[in-house]
Amino acid sequence: MLRCIAVDDEAYATRLLASYIQKIPTLTLVGTTTNPIEALHWVQEGRVDLVFLDIQMPELTGLQFLKICGNRCKVILTTAYPEYALEGYEHDVVDYLLKPIAFDRFLRAVQKAQALLPAPAAAPPPVPTPVASPAGNSLFVKGESKNKFLRLDYADILYVEALKNYVSIVTPGQRVVTYQTLKDLSEQLPQPPFLRVHKSYLVSLDKIRMVDGNTIYIADHTIPVGETYRDTLFRLVRDRGE
């Protein structure tokens, strides 16, 4: 499953790309935005595998985006200007889609991206759920190799992101990916300070520096807030502020 975003300064263009992405079972839509700086932040956080990127945008052009992005993800350019094709390919883009974009042409570009990206690794056999340490303030999670377990202190965990049958546990100094569902992990962590704020995210209330609408800010990370979790989050944040 490739995690995708659509970036274009015209909202109707992102809506079209989003509708195309949602038609392909092997793609998942992380989000759409008219702000390339926001999209760059998502890429730098490692939340994106494939970007559908317009070229002519204010603040940050698509070509500038490519230079900053480097090789963090694959990019398919979407534009009405064919003259940028050569420079785009110099940045190792997957494909170059000229507007208006037909679905069959979009699908061929996606197939190119899938051929270039590594196939997902087979899921390892299930391992026991994390076990709290005797001190009651940390847990052990399975590492990337056999018989390797990592100890994580609760106080160091910023947030946890679901990745299907895996979770990504983010601390100030590292990101640990382990075979575990977000639901099972949430049952191992003390609540509060840990709180489910989205179907794909669990955060530490102690690490939140700001909540603005449907966005939580933790260090330099942004976390979305799901509608069904908003009331509980705001109530706990208010209670802690009193």
Automatic annotation (TrEMBL):
Read off the InterPro entries from this record.
Answer: CheY-like_superfamily, LytR-like, LytTR_DNA-bd_dom, Sig_transdc_resp-reg_receiver
Q: Any idea which GO molecular function terms this record carries?
A: DNA binding; phosphorelay response regulator activity
Which residue ranges does the record assign to the Response regulatory domain? 3-114
Q: Which domain of life is it from?
A: Bacteria
PROSITE patterns attached here? HTH_LYTTR (PS50930), RESPONSE_REGULATORY (PS50110)
Question: What are the entry keywords?
Answer: DNA-binding, Phosphoprotein
Its recorded name reads LytTR family DNA-binding domain-containing protein
